Amino acid sequence: MTFKSLISASLLGLGLLSSTVNAAPVAIDHVVAVVDDDIIMDTQLDQRIDTVRRQNAGAPLPPANVLREQVLERMILESIQLQMAERGGIRVSDAELNDAIRRIAAQNKMSLTQFREAMEAEGVSFTLAREQILNEIRVSRVQRFQVGERIQITDQDVDYFLASDLGKMASAAEYEIGHILIAVPSQASPNDIQQAEKKAQSIVADLRNGADFRQTAIAKSNGRNALKGGNLGWRKEAQLPGIFADVVPQLQLGDISNPIKSSSGFHIVKLLNKRGGNTQMVTQSKVRHILVQPNELRDKAKTKALIQQLYQRLQAGEDFGELAREYSDDPGSGASGGELGWVNPGDMVPAFDKTMAATQPGGMSTPFESRFGWHILQVEDRKQTDIGAEKQRDQVRQLLYSRRFEEELPIWLRKIRSEAYVDIKAAE
């Protein structure tokens, strides 16, 4: 219920609003859907629809009733998953949320302040946007736990993939893909299929004659990314959905595929962009560190004082490994004298990565702070390493995981939707 509606309702309850025939009608918020233990209010649905309209300003959208159904269904799935997150005790700290918002701002080449001002200039409430980002993080974690944790990629899976023709090309190219789905009902009749195919062919013809792909996807696609203009993002060849795997590599930039039939309907893809090639040689540093963090007995000031004392003791000649074993709060490395092994650039948080790069082999840093606490690091050695094979296996493992995750996620979403109690109220 909006703040204005809450005030109106309160005044009505106190008998302080005029009930004369000339009084302006008061908008009353109402429930549009009950989802297990949650409800979705009309104002919430309207706010989400307004957001979709702003994000796609100037682009044709589905008819209002269709758009309302699409957005409501998305909110129902979101509600189910957020309730799962609540029951599972999934929390997102303020620091994690702020980091996520800063990353989004950086992707848009803005500072956090500029990002906030830009949103507010477009009429988007930063508070609501922050809440939506929080919800997206929680939903993502639920999906990773419920779906991702069941996916196991073995060394044998990686070996088989690398031995395949597709695997040999896995690191050669990445594709940015646009996607339009013309869906057919689960119990489609021959006529339904024929009509869907005819519609898909008509769309392909329009696109090849210059129709805007993004606007067409928003207006006509039934795919999950329709409201994002059908953009599926960047995909390795091995990460392509199976029905596209043989088609996309044959497309030239800007090409539109013929309709591709599947059990879901007819798919149309466009090759938006293509890139390839990776640097295999990296400069690795053999590093150890001491980490000191604030705790219930040690505030920030005392933590900083302790790291300064440890630094002085190291400069006086005390053994780095012994002090790490005694004082480091890093459970992974502390027991082994602070050893982190060989570290690649970018593996650590920015403050650590920057300090590591600036420290010469055999040298030790002054105390520095990261989001984990205060550190002292020592670079024991440095070398140039070809990590091509290792990197390739890691990439393949991630690709196979992502591919299987994308296959399993829609199945899981349908399952939780079917098992949930959902009561969609008739429009008032």
How is this structure best described in words?
The protein is α+β, with helices and mostly antiparallel strands. It has 4 domains: 1-73, no CATH class; 90-146, Orthogonal Bundle (Triger factor/SurA peptide-binding fold); 155-277 and 401-424, Roll (Chitinase A, domain 3); 281-386, Roll (Chitinase A, domain 3), CATH 3.10.50. The chain is 47% helix and 18% strand. The protein has 14 helices and 11 strands. The strands form 3 sheets. Strands 4-3-6-5 form a 4-stranded antiparallel beta sheet, covered by helices on one side. Helix 7 packs across helix 14. The protein is globular. The protein starts with a helix and ends with a strand. The model is unreliable at 1-24 (pLDDT under 50).
Task: Spell out the key features of this protein.
428 residues, alpha+beta, Triger factor/SurA peptide-binding fold, Chitinase A, domain 3, 4 domains, four-stranded antiparallel β-sheet, 14 helices, 47% helix, disordered N terminus
